[in-house]
Specification:
Blueprint lengths: L1 H30 L1 E11 L8 E7 L5 E7 L11 E6 L7 E3 L6 H42 L1
Antiparallel strand pairs: 1-2, 1-4, 2-3, 4-5
Helix pairs in contact: 1-2
Length: 146
């Protein structure tokens, strides 16, 4: 039972966590400072959530930072190539690879699936069984009265 309760709470928590991460990523991409970065790693896996790109870039103060993103099925950057990066001017550690999804999108997807399974299925069963239970009670009441 604790296992089910964990997932009933965990699903919505992942949705919130993923949505906040995706919003933060989109805000950076829309309004952050831009820099060109060099692709230092690209993991080309068959699972979409495992196709990761890592880009190294230099902030104006000369410090080096790494931005990470999830590559889509049609994105295969070469190590050593350049990609645009958006970052927070006050904290370059908060950054995003422009044109690539944030890892928060995976959390959001997992949260939706867990919530659907651990909230949606029980609600569906309840909605299906409730009218049948009411109908059975009415029939029992008629049989007892008649």
């Amino acid at each position: 039972m604790a296992f089910v309760l964990l997932f009933m709470i965990g699903g919505p928590a992942l949705i919130v966590w993923g949505a906040v991460a995706v919003d933060r990523h989109d805000t950076l991409v829309r309004g952050g400072q831009r820099a060109e970065g060099t692709v230092v790693e690209f993991v080309d896996a068959h699972k979409a959530s495992k196709r990761k790109v890592e880009v190294e870039f230099a902030a104006p103060d000369g410090s080096t930072h790494r931005a990470r993103g999830l590559a889509g099925p049609d994105q295969s950057p070469e190590v050593g190539s350049t990609l645009p990066v958006a970052y927070d001017e006050e904290d370059p550690g908060r950054n995003a690879v422009v044109g690539y999804d944030d890892t928060g999108s995976s959390l959001l997807g997992m949260g939706v699936i867990l919530t659907g399974v651990f909230w949606g299925l029980p609600l569906l069963v309840l909605l299906v069984r409730l009218p049948a239970r009411r109908r059975r009670r009415r029939e029992e009441a008629r049989a007892a009265a008649g």
